Amino acid sequence: MHDSADIFEADLSGLHWEAWIERTDTLAGDDGYCQPLGDRHAALLIERKPTLLVTFENFNRLSDTSNSAQPLGWSLAKARGWSHLCLLGNGATWFRDARVYGYFDRLVDDGFFDEFEQVIFYGAGPCGYAAAAFSVAAPGAKVVMLSPQATLDPRVAEWDDRYLNMRRTSFTDRYGYAPDMLDAARTAVLLYDPDVELDAMHAALFTRANVMKFRTRFLGYQIEQSLARMGLIAHVIGALSEDHLTPLALARMWRARRDETPYLANVMRRLVADERDRLTILHCRNALSRRVGGPRFRKALAMAEARLEERGT
Fold it and tell me: Fewer Cβ atoms within 10 Å of its own Cβ: the N or the C terminal residue of the chain?
């Protein structure tokens, strides 16, 4: 028998799908479980009180945010003493599986979500879609989504040609169109990069009175990894749980990007590509003065200064 507290210290890296499920089920002890839902999904529960964090995550990308291949939600659950339910997909599945639907049906029938003072759903990309879609199972829940898709139904989103292999997957049956599933949510927060045109088009479909949208330019497709490195995912979810999350609060959190080297490098590449030499110089000098720049910034700075000198400016 194991104490579930041990699970937060476990190194799960290097385990294949079945071994990961078996290991976490053992570590969950008497306070939870990890059970497969068919061949490509699993549900991992660590039950405490009074808040339940429900995260949707991709097994193949656990190592992107954790060196120990742990779900992203574990750090929050450990720090705040929350319960955590992780829905794990083996690949980008958008959780479109009847066994996942059935699992949520059982939770609803058992009154599982009613046992908690508040429920928070979280996911990014395909998992952000799932966080919105399945939040309908817990009316009054709060939702955090990073660059989610609204649907991949070609009748609605035929312009999104990134996931052609999902065109035959039904997005019109149960838990289908994610924006509609948010109608029962208390509030939802959607963060996305408007420069990723297709993500911005999906974000537009989520325009609802209870959805707060916030633009995080220059993060691109690495939005979850970047925000996790900056600690913003934990801050956003924490502020949301305390009803302190406002556009102004988000803007203040977003200032953390000024010390995020990959973000600054993305800005620099855009300035160089647009040949905005004066702004390139200011940007690189600022980054180097705060010791968050490096050789790339020094090189871009020298080239921009040389071009201005050639023009006599």
Answer: N
